[in-house]
TrEMBL record:
Cross-referenced SUPFAM superfamilies: NAD(P)-binding Rossmann-fold domains (SSF51735)
Gene3D superfamilies: NAD(P)-binding Rossmann-like Domain
Entry's Gene Ontology cellular component terms: membrane
Region annotation (Disordered) ranges: 1-20
Protein name: (+)-neomenthol dehydrogenase-like
Organism: Panicum miliaceum
Length: 337
């Protein structure tokens, strides 16, 4: 799919010799961006506000979230999209339930969800899930915080998505869910033994070696959410009893990679479940980006990643896919996990 033209967004109209593309969204289009008080989430929220959407910026820390929303409001040109903050901890069921109730009662729904996983669009709904964590340094691989990593990156993203699904507006322009993920959770990268140099120049091999897990994740017809939950539970159990090493799990940022394996697989199933219901589900890997998670290392800035994420979230309806994993701007089929 060629995306260069699609990133112009909107409907084409002719005025003399000039071609204008009117956006498909309006100021009533609601975009929810989780984990948006800093990094890629903050950059994405700012870009969506610049484009005129109504943005709900969420974060666990209320003071930081309020400050981030205020900074976007102060910087955006007058008259563009509204920006509001709402506290949300995706790993806390009570917080997720309260947030979903607020979206229903105050906004009437959404259009886009973006999670860091991300959520966008409640009116013309969109969700961008960007609330994600990792506790490892670039060159370390501890699983000390594995339960927190899985609870936030997978269980939290899934819980929030399921809570907000009834509120998506299913407009003709199509509601959108964009999960910020990682190629560490792609089987095709892992199985191909792709070498990714780290900052010290050491080549790191990513590979899910367990044949039973590989067969399960590749069997699209039989894979279920229960299977994915079972994989996560098995990993956490092996971490708990200290037997996870040598069991075929990815060898780099193991807990983070497993969380993204689970998120990618869930996103694939969700895209299939929602087929024909005017809700698209895609994942986006921004690559090695300079954020707090990477301790400032990376090939690109959070602002660059946020710009591309916004472009994917705002694709014109006719160009909007579902069930895809985007490595930067290049879509890959989930079936090629």
């Amino acid at each position: 799919m060629a995306l260069s033209h699609a990133f112009n967004h909107g409907r084409t109209t002719n005025t003399g010799s000039t071609v204008h593309r009117a956006p498909w969204w309006t100021g009533e289009t609601v975009a929810v961006v989780t984990g948006a008080n800093r990094g890629i989430g903050l950059a994405l929220a700012a870009r969506l506000a610049e484009r005129g959407l109504s943005v709900v910026l969420t974060a666990r820390d209320e003071a930081r979230g309020e400050a981030a929303a205020a900074a976007i409001r102060d910087a955006r040109p007058p008259g563009l999209g509204a920006v509001r903050f709402r506290r949300l901890d995706v790993a806390d069921p009570a917080s997720v339930a309260a947030f979903a109730s607020w979206v229903r009662d105050e906004l009437g729904g959404l259009d886009i969800l973006r999670q860091a996983c991300v959520i966008l669009n409640l009116i013309d709904h969109a969700q961008v899930n960007n609330a994600g964590v990792s506790f490892n340094e670039i060159d370390t691989n501890s699983v000390e915080h594995a339960e927190t990593v899985l609870r936030t990156n997978f269980h939290g993203a899934k819980m929030l998505t399921e809570a907000l699904l009834p509120l998506f507006r299913r407009a003709p322009t199509t509601s959108r869910i964009l999960n910020i993920s990682s190629q560490l959770g792609l089987l095709n990268v892992i199985s191909a033994l792709q070498k990714v140099p780290n900052v010290a120049g050491v080549h790191i091999h990513h590979k899910l070696k367990d044949p039973a897990l590989r067969r399960m994740l590749l069997d699209e017809a039989a894979l279920t959410e229960r299977d994915i939950e079972g994989m996560v539970s098995r990993f956490l159990a092996e971490v708990g009893d200290g037997t996870w090493r040598g069991r075929g799990w990815p060898e780099v940022w193991t807990d983070y990679a497993v969380s993204k394996l689970a998120l990618n697989a869930y996103s694939r199933l969700l895209a299939a479940r929602l087929a024909g219901e005017r809700v698209s589900v895609n994942c986006f890997c921004p690559g090695f980006t300079r954020t707090d998670m990477t301790r400032g290392f990376g090939k690109r800035t959070a602002e660059e990643a946020g710009r591309v994420a916004a472009g994917l979230a705002l694709l014109p309806p006719r160009d909007l896919p579902t069930g895809k994993f985007f490595k930067w701007r290049t879509p890959q089929l989930y079936s090629k996990l």
